[in-house]
Amino acid sequence: MTGAQPSTLPDWLRHQARHRPHALALRHKRLGAWHALSWREVAAAVEQLAAGLAQRGFAAGDALLLVSQPREQALLLSLAAQWSGGVAIPLDPQLGDAALRAALTHLAPRFVLAEDDRQVDRLLAQEQALQVIDANPRHLTPHPHPAVIDYRALALASREGFAPAALPHGDAFAFVRLNDDGHLVEQRFTHATLVREARHLVDTEKLHANDEAFAARAFAAASQARYLIAPWVLSGFRLNFPESLATRDNDRRELAPTLVAGTRDTYARVAQLVDDRLPGERSWRRRLIDRALRGQRGPFGPFIRTLTWWLITRPLREVIGFSRTHAALVIGPPLDAKTAALFDALRVPVRAWPDHSDWQRVEQRAQPETPQRHAADRASEQPAY
């Protein structure tokens, strides 16, 4: 790369679109079929969405709230908001009505993406002036409410090519959730922080453009931005969205990604899939895997390791979708001893990456205020690891 280094996520997207326009960037599954977008197509979609947002009043510093599970519309809209100098705020769709109302009051977003009709109705029921973008993944008849914008109708063709981000060093993402005491808390990440951390991850895990990543965690988790989205635009690997959280295990097995990022609960759930596939305790296959878990020693160790690999380990790796994985990341607390032993026996080295938090308690306001402008804050001071 020559010239100045890209400094924001949209800048990196523009870089990928210019240097690798036809390379596959994004795949998502709908109704059992995979759909793909190149880097040029992703950049064009983001730019058109940004133009549509701007035409409807979205400006630098505005907030775009995304009430959605992992899906390509949420990702593209996040980048569109950032393209215009705004901040994208993914929110857990399972958040209760009271917490949703508190989040809306605090954030005062200009637009909110709703993943389905249920979320559209929840948002319209709030006593706040909102423009709701309906993801409408099944391409149904547009919602009749005047405050609802169909996602497909939002995109506006642009004639001027790639426009620079309005706030190149402002916040990229913000996240809100309920803490253990039931209070709403928030943390923010600047472009500078995400780019710095992503570069460190890419270098440490030796990620490259031919990698396949699987985005099956909750979109509202901060680690999605830090360990998948930012590294994706920096390294140019392919990012894959499952059809739903319910199908993620089957979709991961079908893709066999090379990069997997999850929590200890993610790996414990996958370990349970392995355990369910193992035969009864008295079978010779079960005895082989048990010996692998304990580690093979003695004169027959190499023979047993080879036999275990071809008859047990290799098929099990294919069953859980880890047959090609070279970067298996656990975000936050490390694996428990049992799960760690199982993945070690499967010859899948799982490396722990921190999930440092700078959650700040949100002070509740009685009434919504004018949409606030978001500027860089102390998230830029978070250390890179």
Automatic annotation (TrEMBL):
Residues 358-385 are annotated as: Disordered. Residues 13-131 form the AMP-dependent synthetase/ligase domain. This is Long-subunit acyl-CoA synthetase (AMP-forming). The lineage of its organism: Bacteria, Pseudomonadati, Pseudomonadota, Betaproteobacteria, Burkholderiales.
